[in-house]
Amino acid sequence: MRAFDDLAERFGYGLVITPLFESTELFSRGVGADTEVVEKQMYTFDDKGGRAVALRPEATASVVRAYLQAGAQGVFKGAYSGPMFRYEQPQAGRRRQFHQVGVEYIGEPSADADVEVIEIGFRLLEAVGITDATVLLNSIGDPEDRVAYRDLLTDFLTERSDRLSPDARRRMVTNPLRVLDSKADAAVVAEAPVPADHLGPAAAEHIAAVRSGLDAIGIPHREEPRLVRGLDYYNRTVFEYQSASYQAAQAALGGGGRYDPLAGMLGGAETPGVGVAMGVDRIVLAMPAAEARSSLDLFVVAADTAHRATALGLVRALRTAGVSADLDLGGKSVKAQFRAADRRGASAVAVVGEEWASGRVTVKDLKSGAESSVEAREVAAWIRRR
Ligand code: HAM
Q1: Which of 20, 271, 334, 361 has its CA 20 to 30 A from that of 42?
Q2: Could you tell me the pTM of the whole model?
Q3: Is 156 in the pocket of ligand 1 (CB under 6 A)?
Q4: Model confidence pLDDT, tens digit, residues 29-57
């Protein structure tokens, strides 16, 4: 995804590529054995050597594993893009193979790192034309804050267990926090104590700094006290993105959070980290149609077959000059070539015809309809001037 590659580069993230499948244990330790993702949604199998492996349901655990294996040296900023696999009930925006782009900022405890990764997800949505996104934000505190909170929540749920779904009754014992985002138990959960009211001073200060950091750069955010996310490695900041242009049962266009406990969960030295992953399938569904089309700076039209080779030469020269240019290779009529230019989302057309003899072509801006004659070697400059 070009918009993502540009952002990752500008924010200083290098490419990180991790395997499509890894040991099942990595995910059960990292993502959490009692999470829906690991319990129900992993594609697991034994390889020929009898090793239990799983198609990756997400990339964060793999990136932190790779960081630890590489010697865990200081700050690492990695960006990835690729397919993830979860055995879910398929529906619009929820696929068993889906594509994520994401970044992980490892080794940095500052709230400014949280703000940075939240900004990257938000800027990506902006760049593809989703301009009304909001960040839903919460803090689930530090593991030590959660000990007392967990007891409080367990007592609250136990008292109401006759009103809970069977899943929630089981989770209440193994992982009570996850009951908070159970849609089936919304009525009970609405009254439950929330983690944000039980933060220790350090976690409270951290989320306040994240909020003011987002305010300072004008990123809209909203407290969502029951946002807990489906993966076990998080502490403190958790967040998701929503937009009015994408309203489905599965509404998050992306999500992430801080995962200081993860490196330790994988057997490595304590290392802070924070990251975000954006769901490309959902983003494409939410994008304005015009943005979703591929676009071209220029479509070159050959006025007749005699000028096809010349048109191809012009396209090659423009591509070398950094202009995105294309043409029809199938010998279509001029009218059909114009139609193709439109379908391809070209913003301008250059017609190569008789004028070529005097080194000129006719260029037409497809938005304004304005036409003019320019020197062939000036076409790239004309495109940039518009
Ligand atoms: P996640 O919330 O599980 O987080 O996934 C991130 C995004 O991937 C979701 O918001 C959604 O847009 C997309 N997604 C998830 N499942 C599906 C699916 N079945 N079909 C289509 N899209 C889907 C993570 O994966 C974390 N690793 C994010 C993170 C990075 N946390 C820290 N660093």
Answers
A1: 271
A2: 0.89
A3: no
A4: 998 887 888 888 999 999 999 999 999 99
Question: pLDDT of 304-349, one tens digit each?
Answer: 999 999 999 999 999 999 999 999 999 899 999 999 999 998 999 9
> 152 CA distance to ligand 1 centroid (A)?
29
Compute the half-sphere exposure of residue 79: CA atoms within 13 Å on the CB side of its CA.
Answer: 20
Q: What is the dihedral of CA 198, 204, 210, 213, to 10 degrees?
A: 140
Share of the chain above pLDDT 70, in %: 98
Pocket test for ligand 1, best of 1, 31, 58 (most atoms within 8 A of CB): 58
Q: Whose CA is nearest to atom 20 of ligand 1?
A: 94
Q: Is 256 in the pocket of ligand 1 (CB under 6 A)?
A: yes
Q: Give the C-alpha separation, 121 to 139, whole Å.
A: 18
Return the amino acid letter for 204: A
CA distance 40 to 310: 59
